Amino acid sequence: MKIGIIGTGAIGGTLAKKLAAAGHDVKVTNASAEHELANTAARLGVAHASLRQVVSGVDVVIVSIPTNAIAELPKDLFSGVPDNVIVVDTSNHYPTRDGEMNVFNEKLESVWVSEQLGRPVIKAFNNLLAHSLEHSGKAKGEPERVAMAISGDDEKARRVISTLVDDAGFDPVDNGSLSESWRHQPGMPGYCTELNASELKQALVDKDGIKGKGASLRDKSMEIFTGLTATPTHEEILTILRSLFPTNPKQHNAILEKADSAS
Ligand SMILES: NC(=O)c1ccc[n+]([C@@H]2O[C@H](COP(=O)([O-])OP(=O)(O)OC[C@H]3O[C@@H](n4cnc5c(N)ncnc54)[C@H](OP(=O)(O)O)[C@@H]3O)[C@@H](O)[C@H]2O)c1
């Protein structure tokens, strides 16, 4: 596939590398001057382009920039882009980075992104930590392959993006329409807790009345992280995020396995 990526950071840059390695034709852009962008693209092993060029002549555009920067993109960026080009949103709102965005008290993050871009979006690649994206991928069929959630209103587009998730080394889990995308926003049990596909499916179900609690649980996790005296390891970050929910599948299943082996 021909893929344009806006953003070459921890997520966009890693996706560029992985999708190019999987045989896709990838071009990237970022907010830097042209010579810096060219160096970054060369390091990633992909082509570089201007913002306008990166959305042109592609099958998929992946928008992977901070949430507050999405509002700054030109409002007509997608006006000449054919309707069948799929737009993917990887963003997660963090007030500590983006500032408070009160719009999210009433609106789902990717619904707002879709309005900003003037295009339907598929929310994907948002529910794994950058470290997981870079290091936890596995070949299809390998045991304990980590899973990623995908939401969006177009079923065919969700299927196409599922193939990219697979190419990046992860099991895609179809979470249905964009209105359900809160289930993999920050603070949710399926958010950045490195679950396999069956665990992620369990985590995407609202067993505990968690709808609407994501923002406060996200902020609680940020408080825990800022209170730490040493930089947490990746495993420690996962443990903290899993601990937000007693029923987090990874945690819950481990407790059950321990109880089983003790009896
Ligand atoms: N990091 C994670 O663990 C993680 C996990 C899942 C989802 N996400 C989400 O994915 C998105 C990207 O995160 P990240 O961690 O990759 O961020 P990041 O490392 O800070 O990289 C952000 C990228 O966006 C580019 N950028 C910023 N404003 C831009 C603009 N107006 N036009 C074009 N490019 C612009 C930056 O360009 P320069 O390089 O030129 O500065 C940079 O390449 C965020 O919404 C984040 O919440 C992050």
UniProtKB/TrEMBL annotation:
It holds the Pfam family F420_oxidored. It comes from the Bacteria. Keywords: Oxidoreductase. Residues 2-93 form the Pyrroline-5-carboxylate reductase catalytic N-terminal domain. PANTHER family: DUDULIN-RELATED. This is Prephenate dehydrogenase/arogenate dehydrogenase family protein. It comes from Chryseolinea lacunae.
